[in-house]
Specification:
Length: 227
């Protein structure tokens, strides 16, 4: 025979006292939730993974940080305080940030973190700031979704290369290595590795700035892979 477990009198009293409140909450869920406001309880703010860092070549206390799922941040005092620069733009996921070697106040940002995990966000192309991040201009490659590297020609500020990984869950989009010869006003695909393969990195030969080395990555996610 099974044994009988008797609950103490105080446990029964607590249950009976709480029951009306539970029933009331079930009857009026909207009223209950209306009093529950989201609030930060810190200090562990969730900003995501750090994707890239750029340090001002003149002022070593000024840094720009690209966050995988948290926009672009700037410090002018070596990390003591931070300012968010990208809240009003079209993407929160950032892949790379670059200080233009010809103009330290010109900042290039490639949106869309270059990772393959199911937690990855996506971007909406390339942005440029000419005032140290105070304002931004969208300069193309909106269908790239993930930009992993930006390089400016060391002798010609109008020539820019962008390594675009492209969409994670579908083929096509703007993927491969792109070049602009007019400061970002227009773009040409100079390395096309196929509908599923994007460019994940690019470097300039320091001995010959017209020689590039690019790496590609074929990455195909599916619902089956997600599960």
């Amino acid at each position: 025979m099974g044994s009988v477990i008797r609950a103490p009198w105080w446990a029964v009293a607590v249950l009976l006292c709480g029951l009306p409140g539970l029933l009331w909450a079930a009857d009026k869920p909207a009223d209950v939730l209306a009093g529950m406001k989201l609030r930060g309880i810190g200090p562990a703010f969730m900003s995501g993974r750090i994707a890239d860092i750029a340090i001002d070549p003149v002022d070593a206390s000024t840094w720009y940080v690209a966050v995988g799922s948290g926009g672009v941040w700037k410090t002018v005092n070596a990390g003591t305080t931070w300012t968010s620069l990208f809240d009003g733009q079209g993407a929160y996921s950032i892949g790379t940030v670059l200080i233009d070697p010809h103009n330290r106040h010109r900042i290039w940002v490639g949106t869309g973190e270059n990772i393959g995990g199911r937690h990855a966000g996506y971007g909406d192309g390339l942005y440029r700031s000419d005032d140290g991040g105070a304002s931004w201009t969208h300069v193309g490659l909106k269908q790239s979704e993930r930009i992993s590297k930006i390089v400016v020609h060391p002798k010609d500020p109008n020539i820019i290369w962008v390594a675009a990984q492209g969409p994670l869950w579908s083929k096509g989009g703007e993927r491969g290595l792109y070049q602009s010869s007019d400061g970002g006003q227009s773009w040409s695909l100079v390395l096309d590795a196929g509908p599923w393969t994007g460019a994940t990195d690019v470097v300039v030969d320091p001995r010959d700035p017209n020689r590039l080395y690019a790496a590609t990555w074929q990455r195909q996610r599916s619902v089956a892979a997600y599960l």
